[in-house]
Design a protein that fits this description.
192 residues, mainly alpha, 9 helices, 81% helix, 0% strand, globular, DedA_domain, membrane, VTT domain-containing protein, transmembrane helix, transmembrane
């Protein structure tokens, strides 16, 4: 069953769409608030298909992700009980929120930097920062550095790998896709 190669081809086509930059920007913004799909899913193919614009794509992803993080912070600070709690419960993120609260207690503002790279959704940390009334300016600065490093790293790897990487990725996309599914299931079972 070739699920991932079909998806890969579709994503590569979308990455060259005339509105791809808008989609990337919008996805980066909402991913920091509620969207479950990581930005890398759009950023990586866009950087692969147009390596000359890869750094521009990383910049868009960074800026809009931080703007979304600011809104997530505001939601956590002002609308946690009436809006966020029901949403968190509806998507089953209660445990992830508990982890975020624990991490904030241990590491403070550095947790925002670490959260930029963890498998725990970034939105959990942006909202938690607002709930805990973290200082806003350090929150924004650390978000900018952490998200920027992540997105520029992804774009840089795609630029570096270029057409050879794209060919190899296309060749092994089914194996990689199923491997990610298995790892996600294992991670879920371990974190549960």
């Amino acid at each position: 069953m070739k699920i991932f190669s079909t998806l890969y081809d579709k994503v590569m086509t979308w990455s060259e769409h005339r509105h791809a930059e808008r989609y990337l920007s919008g996805m980066s913004f909402i991913e920091s608030i509620f969207w479950p799909i990581p930005v890398d899913v759009m950023l990586a193919p866009m950087a692969l298909s147009r390596p000359n614009k890869a750094l521009h794509f990383a910049m868009l992803a960074t800026v809009f992700s931080v703007l979304g993080a600011a809104l997530g912070y505001g939601l956590g600070q002002f609308f946690y009980d009436p809006l966020v709690v029901p949403l968190v419960e509806s998507v089953g993120y209660q445990h992830k929120m508990e982890v975020a609260f624990d991490w904030f207690e241990r590491w403070g503002v550095l947790v925002i930097f670490v959260a930029s790279f963890t498998p725990i959704p970034y939105k959990v940390f942006t909202i938690t920062a607002g709930v805990l009334n973290m200082a806003f300016l350090p929150f924004l600065l650390v978000s900018l550095v952490g998200r920027g490093l992540r997105f520029y790293l992804v774009a840089g790897l795609m630029m570096w790998g270029g057409p050879r990487m794209e060919a190899q990725l296309r060749k092994y996309v089914e194996v990689l896709g199923w491997l990610v599914v298995v790892l996600a299931v294992v991670a879920y079972l371990l974190l549960r």
